[in-house]
């Protein structure tokens, strides 16, 4: 548990999966990245889906939802998913039911971040968190629902279309406040509508990076995923966010890092940025 002013912050698991390391590290040669995260014989590495539960006296906010429960056994096998649906288990351990979540902020709409946003019961899709308002970047929604393969080919409509049908969708823009103390920042880069989430209260803060910084190994300037639609933008905004976190001594969440889900960042004279665990 982390206290950020009047917000209690808990890291909850949206799942774990196996992922191709070459995709995770993009142009970085294997001879370099394998020194920090060794892969198995199939070039796969284990990754987390670290989500954030932020609670104040009046609000219960979930950031990202992991893989959810809708994937078929074959899809689960192909992604190397670990068993079960840990998000609901972790929430239950904290004494939180799906009905108690007021807002769900989605960094973007890829399956490993929004898959748990909806559930299927008796063949019918519905929001997993029935009382929540789901917060999605306007550009992200436009691209994901465009029907153009170049823009929407990486999305699964069942993860998010039911949110609009249920009247639970809130589209937001850059620097929009979701609730007092929690703000979204449209970063672009990974997707055009990708957004980070900033929690600030009483002089302290926490920054949810989403896939701008998927693991703490991505602290390096040129380490980005091959999924990034705008690689230059990812590099630019990563530096901006890292500088901001370091200068304010804010914690950051590395959403796919199993070993270091949360850290601080320091400025470094030679490496530019350094992870403080």
From TrEMBL:
Domain of life: Bacteria
GO MF entry, a single one: hydrolase activity
Keyword check for Zinc: yes
Alphabetized SMART domains for the sequence: Lactamase_B
Pfam families the UniProt entry points to: Lactamase_B
Domain Metallo-beta-lactamase intervals: 48-256
Keywords, sorted A to Z: Hydrolase, Metal-binding, Zinc
Similarity remark: Belongs to the metallo-beta-lactamase superfamily.
PANTHER family in alphabetical order: QUORUM-QUENCHING LACTONASE YTNP-RELATED (PTHR42978:SF6), QUORUM-QUENCHING LACTONASE YTNP-RELATED-RELATED (PTHR42978)
UniProt name for this protein: Metallo-beta-lactamase domain-containing protein
Species name: Blastopirellula marina
Taxonomy of the source species: Bacteria, Pseudomonadati, Planctomycetota, Planctomycetia, Pirellulales
